[in-house]
Amino acid sequence: QVQLVESGGGLVQAGGSLRLSCAASGRILSIADMGWHRQAPGKQRELVAAITNGGSTNYADSVKGRFTISRDNAVNTVYLQMNSLKPEDTAVYYCNAKRVFISTFNYRDYWGQGTQVTVSS
């Protein structure tokens, strides 16, 4: 059984920083892509940032230059460093792991439970 456990959310003032972590545990051979999505009240879930196994990254336009995604493949963990936070960044942030291989031909996607990030003005 694979689990994604997020940590690092909380309350911060505008202009502040937070670092989110998401650790994947279980019988894992490899993970293709890892990323962060967020969902604000009344809005659809949206991609924030993603990173491939090889380190290629992709960011939403709204966070470019402020957020940095990274991963440590040795411990199956993805990080999101969030700087210059704005009130509009307030949302529940969800970790996502795509194509988690538990054997050579057996893979699926997983989601974390979510962690609240609140940015006060």
Top keywords for this entry?
61% strand; 121 residues; 0% helix
Question: How would you summarize this macromolecular structure in one to three sentences?
Answer:
The chain has 121 residues and is an all-beta fold.
Tell me about this structure.
The protein has strands spanning 3-7, 10-13, 18-25, 30-39, 46-52, 57-59, 67-72, 77-82, 91-103, 106-111, 115-120. The chain is mainly β and 121 residues long. The strands form 2 sheets. Strands 2, 4, 5, 6, 9, 10 and 11 form a 7-stranded mixed β-sheet that branches. A 4-stranded antiparallel β-sheet has the order 1-3-8-7, with no helix packed on it. The protein starts with a strand and ends with a strand.
Query: Helix amount, in percent?
Result: under 10%
Low-confidence stretches: none
What gross morphology would you assign? elongated
Question: Sheet bearing the most strands, described?
Answer: 7 strands, mixed
Give the termini separation: 40 Å
Count the beta strands.
11
Following the backbone from N to C, one meets helices and strands in this order, namely: EEEEEEEEEEE
Mean pLDDT: 97
Sheet-strand content, in percent, reads over 45%
How many helices? 0
Topology record:
Layout: E1 3-7, E2 10-13, E3 18-25, E4 30-39, E5 46-52, E6 57-59, E7 67-72, E8 77-82, E9 91-103, E10 106-111, E11 115-120
Parallel strand pairs: 2-11
Antiparallel strand pairs: 1-3, 3-8, 4-5, 4-9, 5-6, 7-8, 9-10, 9-11
